[in-house]
TrEMBL record:
Family: Belongs to the class-I pyridoxal-phosphate-dependent aminotransferase family. Alanine aminotransferase subfamily.
Keywords: Aminotransferase, Pyridoxal phosphate, Transferase
EC number assigned by the record: 2.6.1.2
Name of this protein: Alanine transaminase
């Protein structure tokens, strides 16, 4: 819950770094639309509670976006940006100083960012092609996600929730009762017991503990 994250940041005096690169890859736009951290932060100003209204101007937020993800997928062109919200002027000055002495993105990366934040508008010459290509990429990513979700759930002992967006699925391995019994006999948690058994014997010295957590890139 974004509100809870911002409340925690306010309470603990934390800076929030919001990686919002998958805001276009939303596969349930009506039920779960993309909502930016900045919008939720600013909405605190509308709260009836004074202690909540303070959050809108108090929590420091850095929102990040780039052309590597979404429907752009231009990983090799190295273009991105971040927006500073409620950052103190002294810190902001240091950020600008660091940026000024660093090499800028390539021309291709800068063009990609310009297209990301200012895409063709309806009525412009390139809009029809832009819409066709971006919708095609979006539907391809969505269909891959749905196909992998279905395939995971066909596997015995595997349960996987459908992806709400982005490029990842996180299947859960449900091990049989016998494995859980063996783990208890060994005095270990089920994942601590299972992972060393599953990995190749040649790698037994590489890891002490391995959690059963699998991310699949589509």
């Amino acid at each position: 819950n974004i509100r809870d994250v911002l409340r925690l940041a306010h309470e603990k005096r934390l800076v929030v770094l919001a990686d919002e690169v998958y805001q276009v890859n939303i596969y349930q736009p009506l039920e779960r639309p993309f909502v930016s951290f900045k919008k939720v932060l600013r909405d605190f100003a509308k709260s009836e509670k004074e202690e909540e209204r303070v959050i809108a101007e108090d929590v420091e937020l850095v929102s990040c976006h780039n052309i590597s993800k979404g429907v752009s997928g231009e990983c090799g062109r190295r273009g991105g940006y971040f927006e500073l919200c409620n950052i103190s002027p002294e810190v902001e000055a240091q950020v600008y100083k660091l940026a000024s002495v660093s090499l800028c993105s390539s021309v291709q990366g800068q063009i990609g960012i310009d297209l990301l934040v200012r895409p063709p508008k309806e009525g412009e010459e390139s809009y029809a092609l832009f819409k066709e290509e971006t919708e095609g990429i979006y539907q391809t990513l969505k269909s891959r996600s749905e196909k992998m979700h279905a395939k995971f759930n066909e596997l015995p002992g595997v349960v996987c929730n459908e992806a709400q967006g982005a490029l990842y699925l996180f299947p859960e391995l449900r091990l049989p009762a016998g494995a859980e019994k063996k783990a208890k006999e060994a005095g270990k948690k089920i994942d601590e017991y299972y992972c060393p058994q599953a990995r190749p014997k040649s790698n037994t010295n590489r890891f002490k503990v391995c959690n059963v957590f699998v991310g699949v890139l589509l």
